[in-house]
Write a structure and sequence with these properties.
six-stranded antiparallel β-barrel, conserved putative lor/sdh protein from methanococcus maripaludis s2 fold, Elongation Factor Tu (Ef-tu), domain 3, 399 residues, alpha+beta, six-stranded mixed β-sheet
Length: 399
């Protein structure tokens, strides 16, 4: 029994010693007795970076025309299929032409009367002209005949103008499409009294080519102008951006377009400047009024420095990065960031080409901490290589 008691006390002492040993504080990574942490770095380099701008946009027809009648009358019939393509000059509606035919016949009769009076006046002047020299008639009689001829000529001109107007009104009873495009639904039905241009009959939209209209925020426009003035951004010649479209389902439109208009005015209600791009639409894939995303390409940031987003940290004094200095230590460096480009920041100030920025492993270091690059070389820019898989024979023995 005494022997068993001693062995139990020995085992308790060993367990207590092991517990106390496990409670000792651990030495931090990179401290005395530990190697410096391994980090991944990227060497800073300047290069031309293409810039893409993207905005919410809406499609609009190249030309959208309201079709209205030019004369007042009863709408007799509709001559087109709603929603179908129509050609320029094609008849869309017919206004009852009978009243206008009567008006034309009356105008033609009035013209015939005026022409008869003119002929009579000319004959009268012709008879008096030979005898006026012989003083067989008075000068007043001859002057009255000449004036009557002039009045008759004016009446003929007036009657002819009324006849031409009547012909024009009769032609206007055939309401034609002013452009080639796609028709809309009819706004009025047959039998309706149409009071001339006051009543909208339908619309015709030219969809090839197609416009895409969008707004550029005023703040963004000012930022772009500052970058251009500072030499940090170079726009395409003449502002002719190449445009692309992302449809409502996210798929890209197959044809590229061109930016062809930017308004100098700012909309006080939306705070944006209107811009417009033009796209070919021969198959009718784009429809007027759709909401799409438009992308503009062609601008370049010359000699720009791009840093991965995860390398840029936020501190009390603003954004900064860790740079590996000549002593292989992590040095915090304040930076001035610009716009986004892909998954990285454009750095406007604080870094120079050739410097090494820590990309991965920033959570394991602090200011002035010694570091080691992933592959042990100062120019390392990739993560450490994964450990090789054990041989098949070793794997089988462990199983």
């Amino acid at each position: 029994m005494l022997r068993l008691h001693i062995n139990a006390q020995s085992l308790a002492g060993i367990a207590l010693a092991s517990l106390l040993a496990g409670c000792k504080p651990a030495t931090p990574q990179g401290g005395p007795g530990f190697p410096p942490p391994v980090v991944t770095v990227a060497t800073v380099e300047s290069k031309d970076i293409p810039v893409t701008f993207e905005y919410t946009a809406q499609t609009a027809g190249y030309r959208e025309v309201e079709v209205r009648a030019r004369v007042t009358g009863i709408l007799q019939r509709r001559n087109y299929r709603e929603g179908a393509a129509v050609r320029k000059g094609e008849s869309l509606f017919t206004i009852d032409p009978e009243p206008f035919k009567v008006a034309l016949a009356r105008a033609e009769a009035d013209l015939a009367v005026a022409e008869a009076r003119l002929a009579q006046a000319k004959r009268e002047v012709g008879r008096l002209r030979p005898v006026i020299a012989a003083r067989a008639v008075s000068q007043k009689e001859f002057d009255d005949a000449a004036s009557a001829e002039q009045v008759a000529e004016a009446e003929v001109k007036s009657a002819r103008a009324r006849m031409n107007e009547a012909k024009l009104n009769l032609e206007y009873t055939r309401v034609e499409s002013p452009i080639t495009g796609v028709s809309s639904r009819a706004a009025v039905s047959e039998g309706t009294l149409v009071s001339g241009p006051n009543v909208l009959l339908t619309t015709v939209t030219q969809t090839d080519p197609m416009y895409v209209v969008f707004g550029i925020p005023d703040r963004e426009h000012l930022a772009l102008r500052r970058d251009v003035d500072a030499g940090r951004l170079k726009l395409p010649a003449g502002g002719r951006f190449q445009a692309g479209i992302k449809l409502a389902d996210g798929s890209p439109y197959a044809r590229a377009g061109t930016l062809n208009f930017t308004d100098v005015r700012v909309n006080a209600r939306t705070g944006t400047s209107e811009a417009r791009a033009e796209f070919a639409n021969p198959t009718g894939m784009l429809r007027a009024g759709e909401f799409v995303r438009v992308t503009l390409e062609g601008a370049v940031r010359p000699a720009a420095i791009l840093v991965p987003q995860r390398a840029v940290l936020e501190g009390p004094q603003g954004k900064f990065v860790f740079v590996v200095n000549a002593e292989s230590k992590a040095e915090p460096r304040p930076v001035e960031v610009g716009a986004w480009s892909g998954a990285g920041w454009i750095i406007n100030g604080g870094l120079k080409p050739g410097e090494r920025v820590i990309v991965d492993g920033v959570m394991k270091i602090g200011p002035g901490a010694p570091v080691k690059t992933a592959d042990g070389k100062p120019e390392a820019a990739a993560a450490a290589k994964p450990t090789a898989a054990p041989p098949k024979s070793q794997s089988k023995s462990q199983q």
